[in-house]
Amino acid sequence: MNSPVARRHPAALLLLLLGALAVVGTIYALVQTSTEARAAGAPSSQTQVEQGRTLYLEGCSSCHGLAGEGTSVAPSLIGAGAASTHFQVSTGRMPMAQPSVQVERKDPVYDAEQTAALAAYVASLGPGPASPTAEQLDTTNADLARGGELFRTNCAQCHNFAGRGAALTEGKYAPTLMDSTPQQVWEAMLTGPQNMPVFGDGTLNEEDKQDILKYVEHLQAQTQPGGLSLGSFGPVAEGAFLFTLGLGLMAAAAIWIGAKVR
């Protein structure tokens, strides 16, 4: 049996402290590894990461640095994650030709395989938001009506209630969503590119995002039975526009007829 003196020995206290630190450190390492795996997303293979690194060095390193550390003209990509990279590259916003008030969407430079490789390489640089899975993008059981409510509450102020985009301040604008894929919409909500706020899981959970995706798909599939959409500003604005246009045409015709009579 251990004596009270042995239990109170300074060496025993030191060993107890070291043991506790070792246990805490092990638990932290396990939790951190699990978190990074979920955040960064596991790349398909080392080959894909190497392919992405080659593409990165050729087309991105001059601005973002050889190891993604960032430069005076472009931010660091360490921790940017696969979602941000896929969004920027798949929408053609990156590579950027020259700095501007807002980077515009254009035809992508890289194909889908190359874009996935670039995203895998950037994800390997540090933990960051992962691209959504096929299950997350599945809107089969999503609620369209609820998606409309969420969209009007969180998105319509900038993107217009019909997702057609609108002007912001200082030459900036919220782009139209008519050409966006479900993955791009999800990644935009997750990463908050440019002027857009981040809608993380604490603000919009996966179910919320799926509902919004279904509503955006509904907007994209809508037809215009009356002809031109006129920006989808609604029947009052469109009616006022047509009324003003018709009134102007009648006034022009009256002036022309009066000029002919003289």
Provide the β-strand percentage band: under 5%
What would the CATH topology of the domain at 132-222 be? Cytochrome Bc1 Complex, Chain D, domain 2
Distance between the termini: 126 Å
**CATH-level-2 architecture of the domain at 132-222:** Orthogonal Bundle
Number of helical regions: 11
Strand order of the largest sheet: 1-2
Poorly predicted parts: 31-43
The topology string of helices and strands comes to HHHHHHHHEEHHH
Radius of gyration: 27 Å
Q: How would you state the average pLDDT, rounded?
A: 85
Number of strand segments = 2
Kindly list the characteristics that best describe this protein.
262 residues, Cytochrome Bc1 Complex, Chain D, domain 2, elongated, mainly alpha, two-stranded antiparallel sheet, 2% strand, 11 helices, 55% helix, single chain
Briefly say what this structure is.
By secondary structure, the chain is mostly helical. The protein has helices spanning 4-7, 10-40, 46-59, 61-64, 81-90, 112-125, 144-154, 156-159, 182-191, 206-221, 235-261, and strands spanning 166-167, 173-174.
